[in-house]
Every structure is written in structure tokens, then in C-alpha cells.
Design brief:
Number of strands: 7
Oligomer: single chain
Low-confidence stretches: 1-8, 191-203, 280-298
Number of helices: 14
Mean pLDDT: 75
Strand order of the largest sheet: 3-5-4
Helix content: 40-55%
Order of helices and strands: HHHHHHHHHEEEEEHHHHEEH
Largest sheet: 3 strands, mixed
Distance between the termini: 36 Å
Length: about 300
């Protein structure tokens, strides 16, 4: 989909994608933050030299070259136009489906954590995405548009599930910062996440209460945006002990995941739970070409 298809508000951002489909790494410039406001603020205040290095050696499409080259200088006016486009893209592509997207991402992260803790790093890397990534100790190979080798040198590797990569991996690293761990993004799902209702929420079929019981069905719906056991108990008007029993049953049925957050736990619905609430069915993996390009040494 081209810049015109996304609308005028997003055009400054989509215009920066070069002919080969690779553009500047805005994640490296914005920093690792979960909030769009923080990302925008970081983009506005990153140093000119760091900004310009990210745009170096990118060949922009001829019709957008004049504006893109102006953005590459890092001047405040062009930065402000770019972050306005970033906000527009976030509002268009991320915000409407964020609750469900987060559910998919947390579920994948939980599966990966369980695999690594139970069977070790080797098993985790082998099963990460066999059709795109191959683990041959001590080298991790991934399908990538160009031949590149990155030595981790003790920095570690951040593996990031993403819903925006299609059926491809992406390798992001800052060559000017030898302390920052490189980031490997992998597809969280194969196919688009299920679309939200018109109000952005997940609905529940009328007969779900008959299947799970009214209180347990309400508990499942209460985990759509994440909730602690105490919060669920308050929402449902039951004791914390009773809420804990309901979440244990939902977790054993793989309808929710539970992870520790400081002194409490966070319960979050899984894709299977979303499907049960009427939000569609989890997507199945599809076939892809085998990885051939050499990746970072681990």
C-alpha cells in the first residue's frame, strides 16, 4: 500500500521507505519505549549527528527525494512533520487493534519464556521460527535481504515479536553504539490479527455464560486489557481466593496467560480466549522459503 493509500497525514512517514522497501530505523532513534508520546519526544530530541547517520545511504523514491533529503538533515520543522505522520500511522494502524495485538504478543512471549526455561536456550532458538531462522551453534542464521554478519561481543540479543513484519524477520542494530544489544524481530502471527469490534473491544457471545459459567465468563472478558487477581475480584464482586480459582481454570484451559509483575500477577487473554469471546480464530502458520543469509554470531 502506497503513501496515497494511507492518506495525507501519513505521507511524510511512508515517503521515507526506499525503493527496496527498507527505510530508516525509527525504533533505534525513538528508543525502546511502549508509549507513542515518549517515542515522539525522543525523535524530536535525538542529536543531529545520530539522526543523520540513520538516513545515510538510503536511496529514496524520486518523487519524494526532495522532502526526504530535507528530513535527513534533522531540522526541527521536518522532524515535527515526521512525528505528526508517526502519530497518524499509530492512530490508523496500531490503536484500533492494540488490545488484541497485545494479547497475541503476550501469549507468544509467554510460550517463548516457558520453552527457554523448560528446555534451554538451544531449544528456544531452534523453535523460534524454523522457516525463517536457523540455529547452528554458535551462529544464528536468518533470512535477510542482504548479507550481513554482526558479532554480539557479549551484548546479548533482544528478540522482539512483531505484528508488522509480515512473513519476514528484521535485524536492527546501531553501528554507532557498541553497548546496545542488537534486536531481531520475528513475526508474532502469520496473517493479520483479528479485527476489533467497531468500538475496539472484544464482545462475548450470549451463550458463553452457559459454557463457562457467568462469573468465569466475566473473568475471561476482564482479562482482555490485562488485570491482576485483586482487580478481577473487584470487578466481579468476589473474593481474591475465588478469583484466583477462576484464573487457574482459565489458565489451564489456555484461555489466559499469567505473568508476574512486581508483587502481583497480570492475567491476559490469549488468542484462543479472544476466539472464544467471538473475536475470530487464531491464525495458522503458512509456508515460506528457507533462510539462507548469515545472521549474528551468538
Amino acid at each position: 500500500m502506497g503513501p496515497r493509500d494511507r492518506g495525507a497525514d501519513t505521507r511524510p512517514l511512508t515517503s521515507l521507505v526506499e525503493r527496496g522497501g527498507i527505510g530508516p530505523d525509527l525504533l533505534a532513534l525513538a528508543g525502546d519505549t511502549p508509549f507513542i508520546d515518549h517515542a515522539v519526544d525522543n525523535l524530536l530530541h535525538v542529536s543531529d549527528s545520530r539522526w543523520q547517520s540513520e538516513f545515510k545511504n538510503i536511496t529514496f523514491r524520486p518523487q519524494y527525494a526532495s522532502w526526504a533529503n530535507a528530513v535527513a538533515t534533522g531540522r526541527l520543522k521536518e522532524r515535527q512533520e515526521l512525528v505528526a505522520a508517526l502519530r497518524a500511522c499509530h492512530q490508523l494502524l496500531v490503536a484500533p487493534s492494540w488490545n488484541r495485538a497485545r494479547t497475541e504478543l503476550v501469549a507468544m512471549s509467554t510460550r517463548h519464556s516457558d520453552l527457554m526455561l523448560g528446555d534451554g536456550v538451544d531449544a528456544f532458538l531452534r523453535e523460534l521460527d524454523p522457516e525463517l531462522i536457523r540455529w547452528r551453534r554458535p551462529v544464528l542464521e536468518a533470512s535477510y535481504p542482504r548479507q550481513v554478519e554482526v558479532r554480539l561481543q557479549g551484548r546479548g540479543l533482544v528478540i522482539t515479536p512483531t505484528l508488522f513484519a509480515g512473513n519476514a524477520v528484521s535485524f536492527l542494530w546501531d553501528p554507532l553504539d557498541i553497548t546496545q544489544a542488537p534486536r531481531l524481530t520475528v513475526p508474532a502471527v502469520h496473517g493479520a490479527p483479528t479485527a476489533p469490534d467497531s468500538n475496539g473491544s472484544v464482545g462475548a457471545p450470549a451463550n458463553l455464560g452457559a459454557l463457562l459459567g457467568r462469573t468465569r465468563a466475566a473473568a475471561l472478558k476482564g482479562t482482555v486489557e490485562g488485570a491482576s487477581t485483586t482487580e478481577l475480584a473487584g470487578q466481579l464482586g468476589i473474593s481474591v481466593a475465588a478469583a484466583s480459582q477462576h484464573t487457574a481454570i482459565l489458565r489451564n484451559a489456555r484461555l489466559i496467560t499469567t505473568s508476574r509483575r512486581g508483587g502481583s500477577v497480570l492475567h491476559l487473554i490469549t488468542p484462543l480466549g479472544v476466539a472464544l469471546l467471538g473475536g475470530g480464530t487464531p491464525s495458522a502458520p503458512g509456508g515460506r522459503d528457507s533462510p539462507t543469509c548469515r545472521g549474528p554470531r551468538v
